[in-house]
Amino acid sequence: MAIFSKKHLFIINPRSFIGPRDINRVIAEIVRCFDGPQAARRISGDTLPELPDQYPAASPYAIHVSRFPREAIIIIRKYTALTKMPVRVYAIGGNGVVFSCLNGIVGLPGVELAVVPYGTGSDFVQALGGREFIPQMRSIQGQIEAPAIPADIIDGGNIYALNSCAVGFEAMAFLNSYPILQALWKLRRRSPALTEMILRIAGVAVVFDKEVMEHQYRVRMDDEEIEGPMPLIHIANTPGYPVNKSVIPEAVPDDGLLDMLVYRNSSPLKCLRYMPAYLRGQHGKRPQVITYRRVRSVSVNSDRPFCIGMDGEVFFDTSFNIRVIPQAIRIASVGGRPFKNRGPDYGG
Hints:
This protein is of the alpha+beta class. It is built from 11 helices and 14 strands. The model has no long low-confidence stretch (mean pLDDT 90).
């Protein structure tokens, strides 16, 4: 039976769910797929089941509920070291657990990734068709049976990203809003529009931050070099973007290229005027302020530290280099769907 041709490691981010009852529904579905309906009926209520810290060699699957950020990296390395069989790792939650699982599997032969979107941030769904495909991607049985397709990733030197990298404006807006997003995480799950409102307010505040908007960069895109004030640099491997938007709908994670936008310096009021078109992926309508390129590598340098975000992981540096690694991983695609180019020229 195909389900037993590999090991299955399910990693759940509990903060992507309102409470234990919702997590138990997912755990029950996993148990049903492997142990049958009777075993699944024992998983219910407001108390999570006791999950073993050790993974029996005879069991084809294991479930782990994360206890702290980036724990998935440790768990994946621990689990894969115990078996010589292929392993499929299921990232159940939002962007955070996907980031952790990706960084856990990179470089491990025979290890695949399945993205099971929950929570308020699930950018990768845009690469497979958008929000309407979320119910299919939440099907555990569908994810188990899904074929794996090759995907590119972004290599940031010692960390990796699946969706995008942002320098400047976007990264600062996320950094400034992060404490509020974390404090209101349960409320945001009950009201998804709240996340977008918080990010928009943070974005408007950053527009009036002169240090961010007039920051001077030296940028090398393959063999092309530009320099000057650049409030925003966005580099995408997929069309995914927070709150189910797509600022570069043309990006697909299997073409061996990164899609890049550079927003040139303009006044705060012009920036606010252009931002709706940017968020709708209409960068081609503003060539006077937005430069679009498709590249294999990018180098960003500055005399002062600047803010960098990779799939929600935010840090500061004065130098930043990334490149695409073509077909670096294999990702489960429910129904065998290919990655979708959502650009206007492709009917997306």
